[in-house]
Amino acid sequence: APGSTTAWLAWWSGAADELAEVGARALAAGATRLVAGGPPGNYVESGVDAADVERVAALTGHGFTARGEHVDLRVLTDVTPHAAPGVSIARCADDLDETIRAAFGDGWAWESARAREHGGLFAARGDDGAVLGFAAHSGNLCHRGTFGPIGVLPAARGRGVGAGLSRAVLADLRARGFVEATVPWVAAETVGFYGSMVTITARTRRLTLARALSGTGWP
């Protein structure tokens, strides 16, 4: 992305010359590191499947190292929408870009704007109408029934806002014909949050693999 020092390797066939070309283009654009997978936003996959040992070995052989990991969940969408007292949740046609950008960054604002185009953006508001949080679906990989992103403003946390938003989004996916949905980029400590609301049918452990870019020794 313009102005970013990180470049993303959205997909790789395994060919060394392709990796070399990506590295050269990233260097020319001013990037200082290359990350395998994709950031929140539009991506092919959220990271490298840890079970794909050949791909992991190929990338580490080209200088990539593990910088973190997360889980992609597949969940059933058979939930009943429910909002906490003093909280209303509804589909949002308003432009929440600035609110989301200020609290959660450019990536989530961009992805949520895409979700709004598909009617997949929901907002939680207090009795005074102030925004407490948001959740979305179909901002990327909409053919898979993809959940997220979701964010609750710090002052509103601990009130059940996130659970209410999650239920609204999953129920909307169900209404669109998705019996299951993908919940990507889940931190290990957050899996229990989703497990308390829905049935988890599959978990994919994904690695964030990255390497520094330099003018020599690439790939």
Q: Structural class, from secondary structure content?
A: alpha+beta
Strand content: 25-35%
Overall average pLDDT: 90
Described by strand count, sense and barrel closure, the largest sheet is: 6 strands, mixed
Low-confidence stretches: none
* Cα-atom radius of gyration: 19 Å
H-E order: EHEEHEEHHEEEHEHE
> What separation lies between the terminal Cα atoms?
21 Å
Helix content: 25-40%
Q: Can you tell me the overall shape?
A: globular
Please tally the β strands and state the result. Answer: 10
- Put simply, the count of helices is 6
Keywords:
single chain; six-stranded mixed β-sheet; four-stranded antiparallel β-sheet
Describe the 3D structure.
This protein is an alpha+beta fold and 219 residues long. The chain is 28% helix and 30% strand. Strands 1, 2, 3, 4, 9 and 10 form a six-stranded mixed sheet that branches. The chain has a four-stranded antiparallel sheet with strand order 5-6-7-8, sandwiched between helices. The model has no long low-confidence stretch (mean pLDDT 90).
